[in-house]
Design goal:
The chain is about 35% helix and about 10% strand. Helix 2 links the parallel strand 2 and strand 3. The protein is an alpha/beta fold and about 325 residues long. Helix 4 runs parallel beside helix 6 and helix 6 runs parallel beside helix 8.
Length: about 325
């Protein structure tokens, strides 16, 4: 895969200190470049680092955590943002298809998980970064948005829900064995990435950090409703289909269980790292530290400008700890 890796991104923009390709990063970071002695950050992940503009595509300031960091550092840090809307953890490994050609599905999966030649690992091995920030896991959990007719996609959140949920008991509404198995696989993918990045990092002081999202409101709101580029909703239709109902306290408690399971899995990933690397993998637990209201959510998955600002406060504290 070409080292430039220009991602599709409705909110893409290039300013001093914010770039989206490795060649441009190298140009600015090189000896004698304007950011030679400034902090350097690699950002990879999903729409929380890469979200559309405030009003429409091409109009208004972008709303995302990368933009918050860019603004906070007054464009004096060099940020290389490679995030893509809809990115899942498994997509953060790039390897050549020939590596798995002719292999069984099980063997191909094993080769994929153990690949240390992925694009991201090469970047931290070949370039000096002070921080490697990740925004990942949310898209793996929802996986598929609701269908165009408003029904739940069987590969989306619906796959976690029992056909006959137990009223008032969030965990009893979920197929917890399915939840735990998927979280385990997500954790394995993340562990391989983090371990490889920390082992091969060019800058021995570089830390890998990941945030833990926040508790949304499963109320059936999509992004850009009625537009050609509408995305979602992701939760509401699944709850309606099993009789829990969207915009209910129980539906929100079920989502809370899912996200708490991911926070727990992140802790397991950290413990699975070699002791010498463990301190350099930082979990920024925005899920428990940040209390958001419905007004802070633009839709079921993404925040408003004020919402991202509140979450970013915790990210900034971690970067400066």
């Amino acid at each position: 895969m070409p080292e430039s890796r220009t991602p599709w991104n409705m909110a893409d923009e290039t300013h001093a200190g914010l770039v989206s390709t490795i060649p441009r990063f190298r140009q600015l970071a090189k000896h004698g470049g304007p950011f030679e002695h400034k902090p350097k950050v690699l950002l990879e992940g999903d729409s929380w680092f890469s979200y559309p503009r405030k009003i429409l595509i091409g109009i208004g300031e972008p709303r995302n955590l990368a933009k918050c960091l860019h603004k906070k550092t007054r464009r004096r840090w060099l940020l290389c943002r490679l995030s893509r809307n809809g990115e899942e953890l498994r997509g953060m490994f790039d390897f050549h298809p020939n590596q798995v050609a002719g292999k069984s599905k099980k063997k191909a999966e094993e080769i994929w998980r153990k690949s240390h030649t992925g694009f991201l690992v090469r970047q931290v091995a070949n370039n000096h970064f002070d921080h490697f920030l990740l925004s990942a896991g949310g898209n793996d959990i929802v996986h598929k948005e609701c269908r165009k007719d408003g029904t739940a996609h069987q590969e989306g959140v619906r796959r976690f829900l029992k056909d006959t949920p137990v009223p008032g008991n969030a965990r009893a509404c979920l197929k917890m064995s399915v939840v735990k198995e998927e979280m385990k696989l997500m954790g394995e993918h993340l562990l391989e990435l983090v371990r490889a990045a920390l082992v091969q990092r060019k800058n021995p002081q570089m830390r890998v950090s990941i945030h833990t999202y926040a508790l949304p409101f499963p109320d059936g709101r999509p992004f850009a409703p009625g537009k050609a580029y509408q995305q979602g909703p992701w939760f509401g239709c699944a709850f309606e289909e099993v009789g829990i109902g969207q915009s209910t306290a129980l539906a929100r408690e079920v989502v809370k269980v899912l996200l708490e399971e991911w926070v727990t899995q992140l802790g397991r990933v950290r413990q699975a790292l070699p002791a010498a690397l463990r301190e350099d993998f930082v979990i920024i637990d925005t899920f428990h530290a940040v209390a958001l209201q419905k007004k802070h959510w633009n839709d079921e998955m993404h925040l408003t400008e004020a919402g991202y600002a509140k979450v970013f406060d915790e990210v900034w504290k971690s970067l400066n700890s």
